[in-house]
Write a structure and sequence with these properties.
609 residues; Alpha-Beta Plaits; six-stranded antiparallel β-sheet; 22 strands
């Protein structure tokens, strides 16, 4: 790099004084001694020019506003000289060169997260070319400590009338550490939503919460790839944010789900909002010139006053969303706490159940066991079935809370408790009867958890339970888990000796393709194919074909829902391996199960004709 002469150093400093006096700098010790006196005089001149604010960025008003908040930063830029003045607080927080900077836009760009720079630059370009009136964009910026902070920048280009420069001015809002922000869409995440709901609860503020989900999004990822899929999520999130601008907040939840929090507006306004969001998903999402048309499902809750835990609110909302997707073909499922007393009552029950998981060491939960038998009534195992009981609610069967609870983060902990309790309770039976197997249900939410397979093995070892005596029954929605993750978990668990079964086979997402694609040891035929099998030839054909197909794959079959002798006679003609149903035994307490195994050898349950 060429070394400048004393005259050249002074020339550059004088040029800076002319165009950018606030950022002009001169190092006297780099000048020859013969030029240092002149340099000192020029420095004095420079200081006086800075004090006169020749670029239009000074003044006590700027300083007053800049010091009024540590979370809101001001900036002003002289577009003729490209010299900016920034709040002292942002200079300190983000380690900027100084309050006055030349080419501050590029200096700030270096601190913006690489994934957010294109969004930032494109929005600025739209303002400077006149396509947008206001600069309004949210992005992540790296602070002095190297931590990315969520910031929202709002700016306005003030055109000069006659003489004087154009001024670009605005504010940058510091929203805090990135933990509250989704890294893909830059929207607030579920943790921020829960925090917001807590504040609404404390302030007794009414809210309207709409949750929407993009249906069949896997098709987008499979067709265009995950990078383009993320671009669609970003675009959809930004359009939702524009839709609610000034009237609410948008959050990105897990997967393809978003939440919109607004003031209470009632069913009609919520329906209109949902319709607008549906129109966006169907008509306004593009990858290049190609439109990506997606369907939406939605659930909504309105509260004049939130009384339940925020986790219960989200669990109920997730349940409403699932109903919209699976039963209502995308129609909005809406619950109002004043018009739907039963829904509010159910929400209070879910709130109590979640509290018992999170704060009360699973108080009120217990297990019952339904025996699984061979055709001669020999008991070879049992399925563990969770129940919950309280003084206010009585005994609550799992169908009342599992579909809702499995959408909550506490469900994973409950699943581990069920597994540990079942293994610990039945280990004495296994020690006396080595052929006995205990079946425990596993939800798709558990399988999605990164620690699931290691947590299962840890519990098996801690309980000193033989892994070959454990059957994990995968519920119907497990096929919605990404197949690579599902297969990895199943291969790992089977390698440890654990048996894997497909529960509720033939319903929901369960199909014969599962037998082809995944490694199952057994399947359990859902009771709906058995309820009318005595009089329904179609059910007879389906059951017969399924059992034969499973037999060809080397997979054993358990038929559940056998409740009378006539049904047993029809089912037995197709020769499944085992049976489960009220004809043999209803779910029983552990003490009753233990009584069956008091004598050596597996007990037989005698069925009266």
């Amino acid at each position: 790099m060429k070394r400048l002469s004393g005259e050249e150093i002074l020339f550059e400093y004088v040029k800076d004084l002319r165009y950018a006096p606030q950022t002009a700098a001169l190092e006297i010790d780099k000048l020859p001694k013969s030029r240092q006196r002149l340099g000192e005089e020029l420095l004095l001149l420079g200081e006086s020019l800075k004090g006169r604010d020749l670029i239009g960025l000074g003044g006590r008003a700027f300083e007053a506003f800049a010091e009024s908040s540590s979370e809101r930063y001001l900036f002003m830029c002289n577009m003729d000289t490209n010299v900016s003045r920034w709040s002292r607080s942002i200079v300190e927080e983000f380690d900027l060169p100084g309050e006055y900077m030349h080419d501050a836009g590029n200096i700030w760009l270096e601190r913006i997260h690489p994934d957010d720079r294109e969004l930032y630059l494109s929005d600025l370009e739209a303002v400077f070319t006149g396509r947008k009136k206001y600069h309004d964009v949210t992005y992540r910026a790296r602070n002095r400590a190297g931590i990315y902070i969520l910031c929202t920048c709002k700016g306005y280009l003030l055109k000069a009338d006659g003489d004087g420069p154009d001024i670009f001015a605005g504010t940058i809002y510091n929203h805090g550490v990135i933990d509250d922000v989704d890294s893909v869409t830059n929207l607030y995440n579920v943790y921020k939503l829960m925090d917001t709901l807590r504040k609404c609860k404390t302030a007794e503020q009414p809210v309207n919460l709409l949750m929407v989900g993009l249906s069949q999004f896997r098709r987008v990822n499979n067709t265009y790839g995950y990078i383009c899929g993320n671009q669609i999520l970003q675009m959809f999130g930004q359009k939702l944010r524009d839709l609610l601008r000034g009237h609410g907040m948008v959050f990105r939840l897990n997967g393809t789900k978003f939440a919109l929090l607004t003031v209470v507006a009632g069913y009609e306004d919520t329906q209109r909002l949902y319709q607008k969001a549906s129109d966006i998903a169907r008509n306004e999402l593009y990858l290049g010139a190609s439109r990506v048309s997606l369907a939406l499902c939605g659930g909504a809750l309105s509260f004049r006053k939130i009384e339940a835990e925020e986790t219960a609110v989200l669990a109920e909302l997730e349940y409403a969303l699932s109903i919209s997707k699976q039963e209502e073909q995308g129609e909005l499922v809406y619950f109002d706490d004043s018009r739907h007393g039963s829904t509010r009552r159910k929400l209070e029950m879910i709130d109590a159940i979640i509290r018992s998981v999170l704060y009360q060491d699973f108080s009120g939960f217990y297990l019952m066991y339904q025996p699984q038998v061979q055709i001669d009534g020999t008991v070879i195992g049992a399925e563990a079935l969770v129940r919950w009981k309280s003084e206010e609610w009585g005994v609550v069967p799992p169908i009342e809370f599992i579909p809702i609870l499995e959408n909550d983060r506490c469900f994973y902990e409950l699943g581990l408790w069920i597994l540990q309790t079942a293994l610990g309770s039945t280990r004495p039976i296994v020690e006396m009867h080595p052929d006995f197997k205990i079946s425990v249900n596993v939800s798709y939410r558990q399988l999605e958890h990164v620690a699931f397979k290691t947590d299962v093995i840890s519990i098996v070892r801690r309980m000193d339970f033989p892994p070959e005596n454990l059957i994990l029954e995968l519920t119907e929605h497990c096929s919605s888990v990404q197949q690579a993750i599902l297969q990895e978990n199943l291969d790992y668990l089977r390698a440890q000796g654990i048996h894997i079964a497909a529960d509720d086979f033939g319903t929901g997402h369960s199909s014969l393709a599962l037998l082809r694609d995944l490694s199952f040891d057994s399947i359990k035929i859902d009771r709906k194919f058995v309820a009318d099998i005595v009089v329904n030839p179609a059910d007879q054909y389906i059951l017969k074909s399924t059992i034969q197909c499973a037999r060809d794959f080397g997979i054993s079959v358990c038929v559940e829902g056998v409740e009378d002798v006539e049904t047993l006679e029809v089912v037995d003609s197709y020769k499944p391996n085992t049976y489960q149903g009220f004809l043999f035994s209803r779910p029983i307490m552990l003490e009753q199960l233990e009584e069956l195994f008091e004598e050596p050898g597996n007990p037989r349950i005698v069925v009266e004709a």
